[in-house]
Every structure is written in structure tokens, then in C-alpha cells.
């Protein structure tokens, strides 16, 4: 999950406000029984809540839960305008429709490449590629320093949804004398370049076309590009696609409303799946991380109201395993295998059926060579990812790499330094 604060001249700018699933890996499990009992957690916002009269605004870089999901739970503590692009704004409006104060939230829609002044911060939204529509990096400028905040990103020339990455946007930043780049470290340990989203079509076609009976694909609901690819593969293989799970229905509705869902990608009503010949069935289901109440979990237990699977059906995991979810996913897979249902997981597939939305080592090097910041601030990863990211930055000629932890304050104007543990970075429980 993410909650970042940029401070200048007595005011603050919040970038992202996410939440995550609780897991045994979270330190909160050993320290706070109240947090331990709850499924969802967010970053403790006490620091900025105590200074909310100094908070100029909130920016959401993209619509993933770990960047936007905390808003319905935490916004009342801040009560400041939210700036984001139209796709993310639509996701946010639907979330806020479920809370009493939703109509009070001021959402300002921004177009990619727009520039906007928020308090003492001048912000330019730079379109980049990730695993959903309209992700943006942020060029944040003040009289004290210029910072490029990448958000989540990769370099993809054919992302299926939206335009491929335009390196000219980032090469131009070098002429601005960027002081610091605050950058995604998720795949810093992986060599080369990440797989393009468009490469998943061949792998999904291979496994779906060769499946003898019904096929169920599970993927992240926010990955509109993957859903479009699956819909196109369904057409090519003579199957009819239906979706199981509220979040999938919701995201496809948002994609339609914002113009990202192709008219030729046709789906059928989930209630019709049971009446089709087995070889014509293609279902996309929620629950790729082993969530017990999701559609895939119900299919594993044979309790889903619309479909009962049988031997020689096929389950395809078009996702990775998020750390901490290994055990519930293993239990899910074993439940299918015990019923002689075939399971294909991305790490075992001979062709790509999943593409990460984050940069590998070579992509990090390219971005540093384009932007040429003076300082690297690795974020969004475990300590080993951050350390490796810092090494990559230094190899590309970055003078200083500040590798810190949650709660540290990074001073990006002279004197450059990290002040350790300035903010209490614990997690708090939130209720659905």
C-alpha cells in the first residue's frame, strides 16, 4: 500500500492513499490485536491528520487498490480535493458511492500532460505504462527542488490499452535538472526487460485452445488489458466469455464508461454458462490470491451458484502470487487437482500468461539515463529490492542514492539527507 507526503514551505502534498490485505508478514500481527483481527489495513495517517490544515491536496497516480483503496476509509480525516485522471476518477466515484460522505469529495479530473498548481507545488502528469488505464508519473516542482515521482510503471511499447510509452516525455526531464527521482523498485532484482502485456495473448491462446473442456481464467480485476486479451482469445477459440465476481463486473463497466472496452469484445450473462457445451465455456473469475469468498474459491469448493466444474476442466492463473498469499493459493490449487481439474500457473507456463506492471533492471537503467536525476530514492519494495535499485541507479551515474524505510523523511534540497523514523509508519485496521 502507498501513502506518500511531499513537504515544502509549511505545506504538504499527498500522493496516493492505498490499502492492502492483512497477512502474517505484516508486523502489525505481532503488536496489535485489533489490527490482527481485521482483513484490510492502511497506513496510519496520524502525522498528516494532525496537520490537515497544511495539506494542499491529494493526488492518486492510478486505480490500483494499494494506491486508491484507502480514500473511502481515510478521506474524512483530511477533507481535501483529489486530483486524478478520468479512469481513476470513475473507479473512485464508485467506491465513494458506498460511503455516506462520498458526495462531499471534490474530485478534479486531470488529463495526461496537464500541469496544475496545488498549493506551493507545481505538478505535471506524465503518462506512463502499467497494468491498467491512465497511470501517470508526476513531475513535482517547488522553488527548493524538482522531483520526478514515477508511481508504478514499466516500459511497454504495446500495452494493449492506451498508447505505448513515449520516452521523449522522460528525456525532456533531463533538461529541467531534476533533483530526485522517487522510483518503483518492485522488480529491481529481475534482469533484462519485463514482458510486454501484448505478449500474453499467445500464451493464453495456447492454453485455452488446447483445453478439452471448460476453462476458467483468474486475473486481477483492474487489468483491463488482460481482460480484453482474454475476450479476444475467446473469440478466436470459439468460446463464450462470462465473468464471475463483482469487482470484474464493476471494472469492465468502468472501462466501458471511459471508452477503454472495445465494442467487439462481447460477453454473455454468467447465468447462461451452465447451458453451454463444455468446450464453449470461458469464465474469468475473481480470487487469484486465494480469497475464500471470491468466485474461484467457490468453484474450488463446488459451491458456486452458476457453475460446477468437473474432471478435465482447466484453471489458468494469469497472475503472480503476491508475497504472503502462498498458502491460500496452494490450498486452492490442491483443491482443484484433487478433483482432477487441470491447473496452469504463470510460473510453470511455457509461454507467457502474465506480464508484470513493474520495471526490470534494464528498464530502471533506461529511465535513469533519460531523466538524469541527481538523487535516487528507491521505493515500493522489500529492503533487498531497494538496495539493488540503489546500486542500479549508481551504475547509471546517479550521484546519490537514498535508501530508507517507511517513516523516514528524505530531505531533497541542501543538505541532502535521510532523517530516520520521523513519522510513525505503523498500519491501522479498516472495516469493509
Quaternary structure annotation: single chain
Strand order, main sheet: write it out.
Answer: 8-9-10-11-12-18-19
Number of strands: 22
What general outline do the C-alpha atoms trace? globular
The proportion of residues in beta strands is 15-25%
Rg, please? 22 Å
Low-confidence stretches: none
- Provide the structure class: alpha/beta
Largest sheet: 7 strands, mixed
How helix-rich are the residues, as a percent range? 25-40%
| End-to-end C-alpha gap | 16 Å
Mean pLDDT figure: 95
**Count of helical stretches:** 14
Give a structural overview.
By secondary structure, this protein is an alpha/beta fold. The chain contains 14 helices and 22 strands. Strand 18, helix 14 and strand 19 form a beta-alpha-beta unit. Helix 11 (295-301) crosses helix 12.
